[in-house]
Design brief:
Largest sheet: 4 strands, antiparallel
Order of helices and strands: EEEEHH
Low-confidence stretches: none
Number of helices: 2
Strand order of the largest sheet: 1-2-3-4
Shape: elongated
Distance between the termini: 32 Å
Helix content: 25-40%
Length: 78
Amino acid sequence: MRQTITRIRGLTVNVIIEEVHHHHEKGGLICYIAAIYIQAHGSAQKKLIRKSRLPGAAAELRKEIQRDGIRAFDRLMA
């Protein structure tokens, strides 16, 4: 089982993307979970925004944030 944590720093909040991959011996995917959190600067509390079981969902969100910037956060909060 492999866990990847990506932090995207914003001006007022940080976006934290946690991914968990679990593969069997032959390389097939058994489990994939991505959880997206928003955390205010200076706070330890994280707010769950979205969960996905679709492989590649976190990479898609990462590209969207890099492309659209603050507007991507507006869509996440809605």
